[in-house]
Amino acid sequence: MGADQFANATLLVDQLKVGIRVCEGRETVPDSVELGRLVFDSMSENRAERARAIELCKATSDAVKEGGSSFKNLDNLVRDLCGLGLN
What we know:
The chain has helices at 5-15, 32-42, 48-64, 69-83.
């Protein structure tokens, strides 16, 4: 379960910019006071990460709605598979 932690942190913090890093490396244990401060700060309405998460939420919701890009792509995949005529 821990093997994907680095990849998940990189995706959420560095690429999507919707998270904050609380520690580095597997041997690092965050100080409880610092961790508490980071959690408290992350709940702030004024965080750029929060605004970015809301923006991504809207984009993903639009993509899966009927007529959205994900909806269309899945529809096209199903049509292509049905068109193969496999029995």
